[in-house]
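User: My notes are a mess, but here's the protein and zinc ion's SMILES. Can you give me a structure?
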Amino acid sequence: MEIKKIVKDTNKSLRQVCESVKEPYSKIDLDTCKYLLDYLVFASNDENAEKYNLRPGVGLACPQIGINKRMLAVYIEYPSEDSKESKITKYALINPRLISHSERKAYLLGGEGCLSVDNNHEGYVIRYANITVTGFNILTNKNETIKLRGYEAIVMQHELDHLDGILFYDHIDKKDPFKKIEGALEI
Ligand SMILES: [Zn+2]
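Assistant: No problem, the inputs look usable. Here's the predicted complex:
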């Protein structure tokens, strides 16, 4: 697999609003979207990560590989204790859009990280606990409506933000980074 360099947050291109992908989707766009997921799968393998010096991640957005188009991938592997097969949640979406969300908020107690961000930014990244997203899923070749909650909703919102030039630390309250939100889901 040919590895593309990850664009870092020192690069202003990560701050741009990405363009929608035009229909009918070209082979190049479909392949690029597939690459986003392939990268996550590839880097989730310890041997690959070590050999190619890759950081594993649960999500990747197209601007992070230097292409400012509205595409993203999510790949979450849940280790299972009792069986050999682990549960996996994966999406590779073109033109994803957040269409609704809960009032309830959610955040990771350990904060968020990003393949494009090398510095540590501590604090809660406040997001919605439940979301509904639409988009063209290249894994099923269909437009889909996807409901996500908790951790998966957080990961998806992180990636959607990239398409609008937003980085996770933008959401951290600078004056009080660990301020608790009443009623929020803490993970
Ligand atoms: Zn990120």
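The mean pLDDT is 96.
User: Great, I'll file this with my notes.
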